[in-house]
Amino acid sequence: MSTQRSYGINVRRLVAIARKETYQIFRDPSTLLVAFVLPIVMLFLFAYAVSLDTRNVHIGVVLESDSEAAQSLAAAFSGSRYFSVTPARDRREVESQLIAGHLRGFVVIPQDFTSHLQRGQMDALVQIITDGTQPNTATFVANYAQGVVSNWTAMQISGSTSAISIQPRFWFNAEMESRRALIPGALSIIMTMIGTLLTALVVAREWERGTMEGIFSTPATVLEILLGKLLPYFCLGLIAVCVSTMLAVWVFGVPLRGSVLTLLLLASVFLIPALGQGLLISTISRNQFIAAQLALISGFLPAFLLSGFLFEIRSMPRVIQIITYIVPARYFNAGLQTVFLAGDVWSLILPCIGAMLLLGLILFALVLRKTHKSLEV
Amino acid sequence: MHIPIQRLIRLRAQIVKELLCLLCDPKSRMVMIGPPLLQLLVFSFAVTLEVKHVDVALLNRDTGGAAIELVQQIQASTLVDRIRVAGSERELAEMIDTQQVLAGVVIPETFSRDVAQGKSGTVQIIVDGRKANAGQIALGYLQTITSNVATTLRPASGGELATVRHWFNPNLIYRWYVVPSLAGILVTLIALMITALSIARERELGTFDQLLVSPCTPTEIIIAKAIPAFLVGTALALVMMGAGVFLFGIPFTGSFGLLLLCLMLFILSLVGIGLMISSICSTQQQAILGTFAIVVPAIIMSGFATPVENMPAALQWLAQCIPLKHFLIILQGSFLKALPPVDVFANAWPMAVIAAVTLTLATLFVRSKLQ
């Protein structure tokens, strides 16, 4: 019965609720921990700990032959900046180290290396063994070890040039530093946590403690209550974006090729579905433990795994590709990477903004349907 | 003789109460059991560092046979879903800018002529650097394709010098890596969250004071809080590992008994960390956010996404304090490598140390609240 008058907005009441919520943010250090300390830690980790630029992978080189050619091939491995080599004479030494995880692979240069080489029987002379338990590193070891061998062959034996040579170019990230691509992606995780997790917790707490009913007994309308609660977190999110961007640009050397305004626009638009999701979770769960679990499961993990920031969406199975369309972080991540590394490419950014707005509208419509100013559940 | 029995009865009553708290609310029961299993399914398929079925732009200025051969080979590979032909450099740039394609291949006019003259024909491959990971992998595939084409165009003497064999996972099935690792991660999240909330919740609701005035000792409180999370975590982990073996068909080569022992140590160390957080916090919100502030960096540094040895030395030291880091090695080793007991113990004792330290600290924190 109360729903009829639940949709107007009175600015004074809105501000009052927002102010109360702001006090609450500053009173609890854990909120500030998540809004400011955690982003800094995350950016730091994505800059230094998560590196996709694999260097100095530990491999073993088993030299069973003493010939000059064999030693020169072994030296080629030691000289590669991609590997850090443990020399061995017997493959059993390195096998146990591979199992223990100390080595990621090993190369065997056999006893009859030179004699076979001289007779031109080159097929499969050198064996490259990798630790397949970590497929990514295994692929890396296989590719680069083959590269070392074929470079060595080209220099030592054939002398003829390859029919095709490749000029790789990395646009937007010429050195292909992974941190430049990862830090914008990390921002979308940080924002998901602030937008979804914080709101889910805060509103769930009010439900759990019963103070939501206290607020409902005031003349404030549902819309005022919800907006008043979200406004401070919206601002907190934007402040966190600014702080993180400054860190990314000035400390971690990520370029910002687009404009700051576009970045803020993207962040503001992303906060709409993120906050909406948080509200919806808290309204459904009304319990902080469940809200935290749901926020983790529907917010944080999808932002980490399904946003395309580490794992290519196009390579996922079709069903999961469809699921990614309802993950707001997917659009935010694409937009952020573009604004940071490429510039204001509106033909990419506008569809992203549109999609996030649409998701936001749907979520808020659901929240309004679920929230009534009535006390029966 | 009289006192220990009473203590045991007290302890049992408290454990029963904690279990009821955790398992009797249908919502929280569902949240604990359903989503982790669902996630294991979804993410096991999503998390792949293979790159396939992407679109690639092609700007071909050459009409010769070598160029046609190259284009056909690119088209035929699993990497590429569609080749999108660009008429000009600008069109190619537009496709990359808007992420319609992951990479672009530019074949210059002189390509076939150079190849025919015995020189090296140059192909330019442009990769979207915004996608650091997928871009590099796609480039690797394209390099393999071109070098295969190069050998068909100009067969080298003798053939390929090196062969590659992948041990433990010969076809490099990514799921064999992801499923056990995800099981470890999801269990970490659940176990930490349950324990972190346990004491903080009582404190927020005011019932912790009642516990303190009861005859229970701090050690009993900690044990009673630890056991439900321990049971739930262990059960969940076993179900997920079972799914790995029976649903995903991942070979299990190691010793199950040893793994079970390590699993219990792992969960004990998580429970310790969770209880430590919980005994410090005064509200549930603090406990949840505190857990997040610890668990997110811990997952990132656990070696799941990128190898630990790629990290700077200081962070590698820090990673030793993460139970998940040690458990992932044991887990992957037990599944695929038949990890020998020596190597299992080498990774198990750090977890035992973490568990002992954190559980002791948690008890001390609770005791200090008593006074």
Features of this protein?
heterodimer; A: 377 residues; alpha/beta; abc type-2 transporter like fold; 8% strand; B: 371 residues; four-stranded mixed beta sheet; 9% strand
Assembly state here? heterodimer
| Rg of chain A (CA only) | 28 Å
Query: Greatest contact pair?
Result: A-B, 117 and 121 residues
- Summed up, the helix count of chain A is 14
Structural description of this entry:
The complex is a heterodimer of chains A (377) and B (371). Helix content of chain A is 66%, strand content 8%. By secondary structure, chain A is of the alpha/beta class. Chain A has two domains: 239 residues, no CATH class; 102 residues, abc type-2 transporter like fold. Chain A has a four-stranded mixed β-sheet with strand order 2-1-3-4, with helices on both faces. The longest helix of chain A is centred in the middle third of the chain and has 32 residues. Chain A starts with 10 loop residues before the first helix and ends in a 7-residue tail after the last helix. With 371 residues, chain B is α/β, with parallel strands linked by helices. Chain B has 14 helices and five strands. The longest helix of chain B has 32 residues. Chain B is elongated. At the A-B interface, helix 2, helix 4, strand 4, helix 6 and strand 5 of A face helix 2, helix 4, strand 4, helix 6 and strand 5 of B. Strand 4 of chain A pairs parallel with strand 5 of chain B.
Brief sketch in words of this structure:
Chain A is α/β, with parallel strands linked by helices. Chain A has helices at residues 11-27, 29-48, 68-79, 91-100, 113-119, 135-158, 178-209, 211-216, 222-251, 260-285, 288-305, 318-324, 328-342, 346-370, and strands at residues 57-63, 83-88, 105-109, 126-131, 164-171.
SSE layout and pairing:
The complex is a heterodimer of chains A (377) and B (371).
Chain A: H1 11-27, H2 29-48, E1 57-63, H3 68-79, E2 83-88, H4 91-100, E3 105-109, H5 113-119, E4 126-131, H6 135-158, E5 164-171, H7 178-209, H8 211-216, H9 222-251, H10 260-285, H11 288-305, H12 318-324, H13 328-342, H14 346-370
Chain B: H1 2-24, H2 26-46, E1 54-60, H3 65-76, E2 80-85, H4 89-97, E3 103-107, H5 111-116, E4 121-128, H6 132-153, E5 162-167, H7 174-205, H8 207-213, H9 218-247, H10 256-280, H11 284-301, H12 313-319, H13 323-337, H14 341-370
Parallel strand pairs in B: 1-2, 1-3
Antiparallel strand pairs in B: 3-4
Helix pairs in contact in B: 1-9, 2-7, 3-6, 7-9, 7-10, 7-11, 7-13, 9-10, 9-14, 10-11, 10-13, 10-14, 13-14
